[in-house]
Design goal:
Blueprint (H helix, E strand, L loop, with lengths): L1 E2 L7 E4 L9 E6 L4 H18 L9 E3 L2 E6 L6 H9 L11 H9 L5 H13 L2 H9 L6 H8 L15 H12 L4 H31 L5 H21 L5 H6 L4 H31 L1 H7 L1 H8 L4 H9 L10 H9 L4 H8 L2 H17 L7 H11 L4 H7 L4 H6 L5 H5 L4 H4 L6 H13 L6 E4 L4 E4 L10 H13 L11 H15 L1 H4 L5 H6 L10 E4 L3 H11 L6 H9 L2 E7 L5 E10 L2 E8 L8 H12 L25 H4 L10 H4 L8 H9 L2 H11 L5 H9 L3 H7 L6 H4 L10 H7 L2 H25 L3 H4 L5 H14 L8 E3 L7 E2 L5 E2 L3 H4 L2 H6 L7 H8 L2 E3 L8 H18 L1
Helix pairs in contact: 2-3, 4-6, 5-6, 5-7, 7-24, 8-11, 9-17, 11-12, 11-13, 11-17, 11-18, 11-23, 13-15, 17-23, 33-39, 34-39, 35-39
């Protein structure tokens, strides 16, 4: 229950702390003895300690005629309070009769089967399922809620650990209400399953992490690996060699072949060891060794007994220098859980060291002074890996079919992959990266290709643990920014995918690049002097698709920001088979276009003939013309010219600069102040409005000032055929080319600046309304602002941040209380919709909101006494006084 601080004549309100909004209190008889008061406050403290502050709102019996309550203004509603109090055993039976509890949780339509399912869930302690069903109570019928309560949660996970059921219910309603009830149920069950599976994966990642030793040991193991190579080099040189002989020593081809093969064999052994460690998490160590026995035996055969002894000699109390030692021991020695676990504990650091060592050997930069080393490395790149593949197969079969390096995917067509795979394809190194990624909890590594080697991103990116509340909030956010609920989504992922597509479309104006007209004309044309086709990037997603194939950084922030500003043009040159041959970056200068970069795949040099054709084409492009900014003042013409026909008909447009607007940036009331406001960032305007609202009268002044729209009035006076063509001038978005020159005319430009400033100040007021800003709540009530705010908040279904709201009238009620008498259907309220939209209101679905909860307003706006009637009457008086002035 919610209570006011001022008690009735027959009761008192007791609180152990400050009486702030939402504070827990005990409500009881005014003449209660002191010991009864103390006992009631002690019981209240136990209730809050067990169920949180929100539990106090459940109206629990505290004994001695006292009930728990909360001072109005706290987060959460009665559903949340009852749920929280039910979880406190001492008070679970002190919340009223079961029928009343059922209504509090699920509404008046609750049935006996739903009550029985609810009691079963409470007795079994299945609180996540119960919270989920309560959150969905406004979306599903009683029979469907019974079915939803039957969902089960795997042991050890909580899909609904946070978030109030009421707020989660609002988020779910935002995306599920357009769908029929049966589909809502299916999607809710799928959401629950998705969260449970995500939490189970997270638990598995934690087990993987605990199964491995500290990664800090990788540096020590790397040092030991290098000393192992030094040992072999000293043996090849001879123990009696002098310092001079060592300095002049040129290792033979056999030495270099051994070094390359050891890099390959260690990578293969580390891959197998990592795969066994991953399986051990699910199957146990002994079963994992049995599952991968054929792989272990194949990897163990790659290390000789002498190599095993040399590697084991360099343990120094930690691990051998090479992973093959542990692979051999898993094959040859007794298989006990502890013995196996100790060896698998080093799988991750062996994988990291083996990958780095192999990448360094393949890069070959430290061997380029040795002719034999370079020749051996080139020759071994062509070596076949069929013998290894016949024993172990492919750990990631799909990689072989799509692997871009060395044209392996093309060579595989019509052949077995093992027949055509070569060591230089580096597929074996990618498998090591994948095994490392899986040992860290990822499904696969992200591979980046370089001319002689590859790099693998294997780290698992930190994520916030998934929960029903978080996923519901994300989906609602997508809907808020323009996402559209798809017609018949079968899964929660499909629903979110549809929302993302709609949100991406809504944000297309922001993400679109500024492309010069000459490049737009060149898009999808053939490059002169070649067979290549020109493709121009229009948005960031184009670059991402290119980069995925090209293995370059063209989708990085450096290129994206410059392309959005129009500083550069980014191209892909495609061959006859539609494959990208090269990427080009063009920059506009005062003397023409300049080719900044032209690179083939993996940043290699482009084909010389293609490069020459591109340079010739760039030199022939038209010199770019720089357009004037809309706010810039046009230079006076050298000769008298006739103005455009539309400009002649404008006449005088009266633009007033209200001091309330210029005060937002502490400037005098001049035209320059309006231009400065137009160029200000939204955050700057918002800060100015918030500071100005320290004076409670400012809200009225700003609303009246922003209602002055001279440009809109001038357009309204134009003939019917002309008005639609001029309408874009009233929108806060880039103008079409046909209106840009018109907008730069002094009389039109000044009026449009005033119009855009008015829109942006109102948008700032809408932002403060969403945030339930106390300065706006304390402002003197102004009728037009009050009506627009009530319509906007109701259309949102409440405040996005979960701040408390109050229903002005009951559900489905159109006539509103207070004087003067008003109705939501009368002209006064309907005429407030344009203003409400400027605050961010959404007319679609408004009457559904009225049916669900009635007209609502932030609770902070309402006086502590008399509520809405007093506020409405004051706003009418204030509006009348302003109109008289």
């Amino acid at each position: 229950m919610r209570v006011r601080v001022a008690p009735r004549a027959s009761e008192w309100v007791f609180a152990s702390g400050p009486r702030v909004a939402g504070a827990p209190v005990a409500v009881g008889p005014a003449g209660a003895a002191e010991r009864e008061q103390v006992a009631a406050l002690a019981a209240l403290a136990r209730l809050v300690a067990g169920g949180g502050v929100v539990a106090a709102g459940a109206g629990a019996d505290l004994g001695g005629g006292f009930q728990s309550g909360r001072i109005d203004g706290g987060t959460g509603d009665r559903r949340d309070a009852v749920l929280a109090a039910l979880a406190v055993p001492e008070f679970a039976g002190k919340l009223g009769p079961p029928a009343a509890l059922l209504v509090a949780l699920f509404g008046p339509d609750a049935t006996k089967p739903l009550g029985a399912a609810t009691l079963d869930a409470i007795e079994a302690g299945r609180w996540p399922e119960l919270r989920f069903a309560v959150a969905a109570s406004d979306l599903l019928g009683p029979e469907q809620l019974v079915e939803l309560l039957r969902v089960r949660t795997p042991a050890g996970v909580d899909p609904f650990p946070e978030g109030f059921a009421s707020i989660v219910g609002d988020h779910l309603a935002r995306v599920l209400r357009p769908l029929p009830p049966r589909r809502r149920l299916s999607l809710l069950k799928d959401l629950w399953q998705d969260v449970c599976e995500a939490l189970q994966r997270r638990q598995r990642v934690k087990r993987l992490h605990r199964s491995q030793g500290p990664e800090e040991f990788a540096e020590q193991l790397q040092d030991r690996r290098e000393r192992y190579e030094d040992l072999l080099a000293q043996r090849a040189l001879g123990k009696d060699a002098t310092v001079g002989q060592a300095a002049l020593w040129a290792p033979p081809r056999l030495f270099w072949e051994g070094r390359v093969l050891r890099a390959l064999y260690d990578a293969q052994a580390a891959t197998v060891l990592a795969r066994v460690a991953v399986s051990a998490i699910d199957l146990g160590a002994v079963a994992a060794v049995e599952k991968h026995r054929h792989e272990l035996e194949a990897a163990a055969a790659l290390m000789s007994k002498r190599e095993y002894g040399d590697s084991a000699r360099l343990t120094e109390g930690l691990h051998p220098a090479r992973p093959g030692n542990y692979v051999r021991e898993l094959v040859e020695k007794p298989r006990k859980e502890l013995f196996i676990g100790n060896r698998l504990r080093a799988a991750l650091i062996y994988a990291v060291v083996a990958f780095d060592h192999a990448a360094n050997v393949l890069d070959g930069w430290q061997y380029r002074g040795f002719v034999d080393a370079v020749e051996v490395l080139q020759a071994m790149r062509a070596q076949n890996l069929k013998q290894w593949r016949e024993k172990v197969g492919y750990f990631e079969p799909q990689r072989a079919l799509t692997w871009p390096r060395e044209d392996l995917a093309r060579r595989v067509e019509g052949h077995e992959p093992a027949d055509v795979e070569r060591m230089g394809d580096l597929l074996w190194l990618a498998e090591l990266a994948d095994a490392t990624a899986q040992l860290r909890g990822r499904d696969q590594a992200d591979i980046e290709h370089h001319p002689d080697t590859i790099a693998g991103q294997t780290e698992l990116q930190a994520r916030v643990p998934e929960s029903v509340a978080l996923l519901a909030a994300r989906a609602a956010q997508l809907a808020e920014i323009g996402g559209t609920v798809p017609g018949k989504p079968r899964t929660w992922a499909g629903l979110v995918g549809g929302l993302q597509a709609g949100a991406a479309a809504a944000e297309a104006q922001i993400e679109a690049f500024t492309v010069a007209e000459v490049l737009q004309r060149a898009d999808e044309t053939v490059l002169p002097g070649s067979d290549a086709r020109i493709e121009v990037a229009r948005k960031a997603t184009d670059l991402a698709a290119w980069a995925g194939y090209m293995g370059n950084c063209i989708s990085g922030e450096y290129y994206v920001k410059r392309a959005m500003r129009g500083d550069i043009g980014l191209l892909a040159l495609r061959g006859a088979d539609d494959a990208i041959l090269a990427n080009a970056c063009l920059r506009a200068t005062g003397k023409g276009w300049r080719l900044e970069e032209l690179k083939a795949r993996f940043n290699a040099d482009a084909d010389p003939a293609l490069a020459q054709a591109v340079r010739d084409w760039v030199r022939a492009l038209d010199v770019p013309e720089k357009e004037l900014d809309e706010d810039s003042t046009p230079q006076p013409p050298q000769s008298r010219r006739r103005k455009p026909q539309l400009a002649v008909e404008w006449g005088e447009i009266d633009v007033r600069v209200d001091p309330a607007l210029s005060a937002l940036i502490e400037a005098p009331a001049t035209a320059a102040a309006l231009v400065a406001l137009r160029r200000a960032a939204p955050a700057t305007i918002e800060r100015g409005v918030r500071a100005a609202l320290r004076d409670p009268r400012t809200a009225q002044r700003l609303w009246v000032a922003t209602a002055h729209r001279p440009l809109a009035a001038a357009i309204a006076d134009k003939p019917d055929p002309v008005r639609p063509k001029l309408a874009p001038l009233l929108h806060d978005e880039p103008l079409p080319a046909a209106l840009r020159k018109l907008a730069r005319l002094p009389e039109v430009g000044a009026a449009r600046t005033a119009h855009l400033v008015a829109l942006r100040v109102r948008a700032a007021l809408g932002t403060l309304l969403r945030a339930d800003d106390p300065a706006l709540a304390a402002a003197h009530p102004h009728g037009p602002l009050l009506r627009a705010a009530a319509l906007a908040v109701t259309s949102w279904g409440g405040l996005p941040g979960g701040a408390p709201v109050t229903a002005i009238a009951a559900r489905r009620r159109v006539r509103l209380p207070g004087y003067p008498v008003s109705s939501l259907r009368d002209e006064m309220w309907q005429g407030a919709w344009p203003d409400a939209i400027e605050l961010g209101g959404v007319p679609d679905g408004f009457w559904d909101r009225i049916a669900a909860h009635g007209l609502i307003l932030p609770s902070s706006w309402l006086p502590t006494t008399d509520g809405w009637p007093a506020l409405w009457a004051r706003s009418a008086r204030q509006t009348f006084q302003i109109s008289r002035r």
